[in-house]
């Protein structure tokens, strides 16, 4: 679950943004609270809420940006509008806004259920609500509400990452970065952070020890090549940009790459394809994460990038022309073997550990409002 405190504002434009959603039947006003006698009136307009919030905020001349606009978003439909409303109420109390006037608006027009919160940072006595370490506290409060033990969670994710086979340090880092962590190597130890604070550590010695045991599964790679050859006529491997949508369907720069083939491999076989590129330029490489077998491979171990992303329309017979022998009977494995792989994948991912690096949780219209702009990672050397 994600909580995002949006950009500070001197006006309460968040009210109009959310009521517009309601007017277009893309949102639902779940609750208004602490608006005093205003709530006794009928047929309230958005302007009425804005005037009330502005009047209370005017009690503090020092607060330049009085609007609090936050979003709590779950993955997919895992939480209903009622559940998100209850979580938002508890979150407001935990952040010190329980007695403040606020609106809760549920948005239902995107792939992720999420709820918007609009309030004022100025209390009735003209004092500003404490915003020290606000972004860190926002997650601490949310995690406490939903029962997430941060220490237990990082320990579990480190253990999970170390259970994979990988051949480079960058590949290990990728597994945890995909879970939203950032890693920094210092004095032989990876410092692992999330929510703005350190969550845990793992020694470089542990990572290198795991690398030393890496054993490439040649048979599995051959099977994946056969799967690729079988499905390339149905799922185009040509890459497409993954946009980072902005509010109002405004265009934005691409944030990554995917393909119909990559999406099929992930959904059907638990094989995630991560393309490596920079600044909207064509990718220079890719990584294969086989979640069903807990293995990470350099893309070139499977096949050259140019071959993997070549459109089936450009080269409909590429599998026959490729510079490698025809798949053997063992490599083909047929439908029953593919379904066995799918079953493995379903069991392995029952805890939803498959990450998604270049695609946000959903292609939401107001995705940036919910998740914020992605920080551009510096490109590492091509050792993945």
Show the helix and strand layout.
Elements: E1 2-5, H1 13-23, E2 27-33, H2 46-57, E3 67-73, H3 81-94, E4 102-107, E5 114-120, H4 134-146, H5 150-162, H6 169-177, E6 182-186, E7 189-194, E8 197-203, H7 204-212, H8 218-231, E9 240-243, E10 254-258, H9 260-269, E11 271-276, E12 285-290, E13 295-298, H10 299-302, H11 305-308, H12 318-321, H13 329-332, H14 334-348, H15 367-371
Antiparallel strand pairs: 1-3, 2-4, 3-5, 4-5, 6-7, 7-8, 9-10, 11-12, 12-13
Helix pairs in contact: 1-2, 3-4
Sheet with most strands: strand arrangement = 1-3-5-4-2
Largest sheet: 5 strands, antiparallel
Q: Which spans have pLDDT < 50 for at least 5 consecutive residues?
A: 245-253, 316-327, 330-383
Order of helices and strands: EHEHEHEEHHHEEEHHEEHEEEHHHHHH
Question: For the terminal residues, how far apart are their CA atoms?
Answer: 29 Å
Sum up the overall morphology in one term.
Answer: elongated
Mean pLDDT: 82
Number of domains: 3
Kindly estimate the percentage of residues that lie in beta strands according to DSSP.
Answer: 15-25%
Helical region count?
Answer: 15
Relative helix content: 25-40%
What structural class do helix, strand and pairing data support? Answer: alpha+beta
Number of strands: 13
What would you report as the Rg, rounded to the nearest angstrom? Answer: 24 Å
């Amino acid at each position: 679950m994600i909580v995002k405190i949006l950009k500070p504002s001197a006006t309460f434009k968040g009210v109009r943004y959310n009521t517009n959603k309601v007017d277009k039947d893309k949102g639902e006003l779940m609750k208004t609270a602490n608006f005093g006698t205003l709530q006794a009136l009928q047929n309230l307009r958005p302007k009425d809420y804005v005037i009330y919030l502005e009047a209370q905020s005017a009690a503090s001349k020092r607060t330049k940006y009085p609007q609090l606009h936050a979003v709590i978003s779950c993955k997919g439909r895992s939480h209903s509008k009622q559940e998100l409303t209850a979580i938002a109420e508890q979150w407001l109390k935990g952040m010190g806004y329980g007695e403040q006037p606020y609106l809760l608006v549920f948005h239902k027009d995107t792939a992720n259920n999420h709820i918007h919160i609009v309030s004022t940072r100025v209390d009735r006595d003209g004092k500003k609500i404490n915003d020290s370490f606000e972004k860190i506290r926002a997650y601490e409060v949310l995690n406490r509400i939903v029962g997430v033990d941060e220490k237990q969670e990082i320990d579990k994710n480190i253990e999970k990452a170390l259970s994979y086979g990988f051949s480079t340090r960058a590949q290990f880092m990728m597994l945890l970065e995909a879970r939203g962590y950032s890693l920094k190597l210092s004095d032989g130890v990876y410092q692992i952070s999330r929510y703005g604070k350190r969550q845990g550590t793992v020694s470089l010695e542990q990572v290198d020890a795991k690398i030393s045991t890496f054993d490439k599964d040649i048979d599995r790679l051959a099977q994946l090549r056969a799967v690729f050859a079988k499905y390339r006529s149905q799922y185009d491997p040509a890459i497409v940009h993954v946009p980072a949508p902005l509010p109002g369907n405004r265009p934005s720069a691409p944030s990554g790459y995917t393909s119909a083939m990559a999406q099929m491999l992930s959904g059907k076989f638990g094989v995630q394809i991560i393309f490596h590129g920079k600044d909207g330029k064509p990718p220079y490489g890719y990584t294969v994460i086989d979640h069903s077998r807990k293995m990470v491979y350099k893309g070139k171990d499977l096949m050259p990038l140019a071959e993997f992303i070549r459109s089936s329309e450009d080269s409909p017979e590429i599998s026959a022309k490729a510079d490698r022998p025809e798949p053997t009977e063992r490599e083909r494995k047929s439908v029953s073997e593919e379904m066995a792989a799918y079953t493995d994948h379903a069991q392995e991912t029952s805890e939803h550990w498959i990450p998604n690096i270049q695609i946000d949780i959903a292609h939401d219209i107001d995705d940036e409002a919910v998740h914020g702009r992605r920080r551009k990672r510096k490109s590492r050397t091509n050792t993945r």
